[in-house]
Structures are given as structure tokens and as C-alpha cells.
Amino acid sequence: MSIKVQYLSKYYDKQKAVDEVSFEAKPGKILGFLGPNGAGKSTTMRMLTGYLKPTSGSAQLCGFDSQTQSIDVRRIIGYLPENTPLYTDMYVKEFLLFVANTYKLQQPEQKVKETIEAVGLTAEQHKKINMLSKGYKQRVGLAQAIIHNPAILILDEPTSGLDPNQLTDIRELIKKLGKDKTVILSTHIMQEVEAVCDEVIILNKGKIVANAEITELKRQHQSSSLEDIFRKLTS
Ligand SMILES: Nc1ncnc2c1ncn2[C@@H]1O[C@H](COP(=O)(O)OP(=O)(O)OP(=O)(O)O)[C@@H](O)[C@H]1O
After folding, report:
1. Which of 8, 34, 48, 157 is the most buried (most CB within 10 A)?
2. How many structural domains are present in the chain?
3. Candidates 19, 34, 41: which one to mutate for ligand 1, based on the most atoms within 8 Å of Cβ?
4. Would 117 be classed as within a structural domain?
5. Mean of per-residue pLDDT scores for the chain
6. Cα–Cα distance between 27 and 12 in angstroms, integer?
7. CB within 6 Å of ligand 1 — which residues?
8. In this predicted structure, what is the pLDDT of residue 166?
């Protein structure tokens, strides 16, 4: 298992945002993280990546503990946060070279070139990040998440703000990356889950209310509509 989460909880003041969440994820499978607004998806992802300290519980990524070994964890994961904080005054290539150097990658220029091609940023690569459209900024976010070829990818709403053409391209890229990496992505788009994910976890009010392969989930609920299952479990 490359991700093992045990009884992870997070309180914000008195509010329990994540409530004893436990699950595992393995390479070669894309895990969709679903749930209504405020269900705790981003909070869980931030705890996995070591950016947020859990109130209790633990998360291991490729055997590294997210709290006590956060530097090792950051080396082996790629993370696209919900609102990608980018250095908007930098040029696309300059920013990605900065990221490549932060990871001390060999042949950083070559890695930047390959990543720019992989995420479809070639035409925009000479622009400043703050000049880019929302969808292209999202691609820069994805580029910084994959440039170091991480074993684990954690993507918080990776396709938000993309137009239909970009959606198809980025979903294809995520599927390709998911062939040998462990990928967790959150989304509100059920078509995306059907198109990209192998397994889903549905969170509601901080708790896991479903954790299964999509086909198994549909069988359990005797329904072919993920949307109906989602509504049944979360309303
Ligand atoms: N920094 C914070 N301080 C206080 N409360 C927070 C903070 N971050 C999140 N919360 C609360 O924790 C709960 C879970 O939020 P979270 O962002 O994890 O949900 P989400 O499932 O990602 O939602 P969405 O689908 O809207 O992005 C919400 O009630 C939210 O208001």
C-alpha cells in the first residue's frame, strides 16, 4: 500500500471537520474523493501531504509518516492544492525551473521542457503566470505537482475551471499518470469520476460513508448512477 490512513481526525476549534477516517490506496488505481461542500476532502488531503497537522490519527505515504517525516513525504508526493498558490510574478518556465531546482532534479531544464509538453503548456511557456487564463494556471499547478515524477499524486479538484477540451486532455494525462502512480483526486463532477477513477471514497460530514471500486459500489446499491448513490449517502 502506498497510502495508509488510520483514524485521521481534525478539529477546527470545536468543529470536527474530519472524523476518524481510515483508508488505503495503492499504485495503478485512481481513487476519487467525493463529498458535498464542507465534507472534509481538502482537510484530509492537506493532512496527508503534511501541510496540516491532524488532531489525531496517522497517515503513512510510501512508509513515511506525514507528521514526523514530512520532508520525505514531500519528496515522494505531488500535490495540487485547491487554490494553487503560484508565484504569479514569475514566468512559467522560470517558476518550473525553480521547482525543479528545489527538488534538486538532474537536468532540470530538460525536466521543465518535458513537463511543459506533458501538461500542454508549450504555447504559454514564455508568459508570466499572472497573464495566464484560469485553466492554464491550473496546468502550471499540475506541472509543479508532477515535475519530480512522484510516486503519489494528490490532486484537489484538478479540473476546476477547465474548458471541455482542456478537461479531456487533463483527464487523459491523469489516467496516464495513474497507471504507475497512486493518485487521489477530489472532484464534484460525477462524469469525471466515471471517466477517470477506479475506486471512490465518499465523505459526508467528515466521515467515510462509502469506500469501494465503482462497479462494486453500483452493485451494492443496485444502481447504475453514481449521482443517485452520492445523493442517497450524503443528503
Ligand atoms: N482553516 C479552517 N478553519 C476553520 N474551519 C475550517 C478551515 N478549513 C476548513 N474548515 C471547515 O472544515 C470543514 C471541511 O472543510 P473542507 O475544506 O475540508 O471541505 P471540502 O470537502 O474540501 O469542501 P469543498 O467541496 O467545498 O471544497 C468545513 O466546515 C470548513 O468550513
Report:
1. 34
2. 1
3. 41
4. no
5. 94
6. 32
7. 12, 17, 35, 37-43
8. 84
